[in-house]
Amino acid sequence: MESAKRRSLIARVLPRREKRAFGAIEIYPKRLRFLTQNPGEVVYILARAHVIVNLGWAFRLAFLSVVPLVGLYFMDYLQLGIGFVTDELIALIILVYYLMLAGSFIMNLMSWYYDIYLVTSERIIHYDFNPLTSYHVAEAEIENIQDVTQSTIGFLPNIFGYGDITVRTASSKNKFYFKAVPHPVWFRDVIADLSRLIRAKEP
């Protein structure tokens, strides 16, 4: 359980509840509970990758969505046809095609939305969610954090302001990654400051 003094110090780092980067970062998220949450454990930040990372698959699906329309247009314009393929069969094939695109859209969106990072009063947690395939959870004690670094590489990350955070801890040889999170410099500083505050012994 946090003491009043610690809450006051943490409020200097995270002064108020807010959302940033179209909801990709939530400070003091409302009504958030997770399965392994300990009594008194406070969730400071919920984060996910910047929304711009969805552009790749979104453009790909948009392109694929117009392919049948273009194909039908040219078949009609050139008066092409396949004798054994009826209009009903073509309609069924197109329906199945668009259902597959819709399924791909939903799975990609869910993969982004539910692939989240949590920063709490006790640890940092990554929920890696892949629809219908896997669900992986990684965590590290926040008081064991030794080093936090940030990198922003590439045209889009520099334009839209997102990057990767690497966290090294004393208890694990593995590194903990926050990938493509918005405001990476701010994120790095907040994690480092919270780690120092939580690690500090109160008088």
TrEMBL record:
The chain crosses the membrane at residues 57-77, 89-114. This is DUF304 domain-containing protein. The lineage of its organism: Bacteria, Candidatus Dojkabacteria. It comes from candidate division WS6 bacterium GW2011_GWA2_37_6. Keywords: Membrane, Transmembrane, Transmembrane helix.
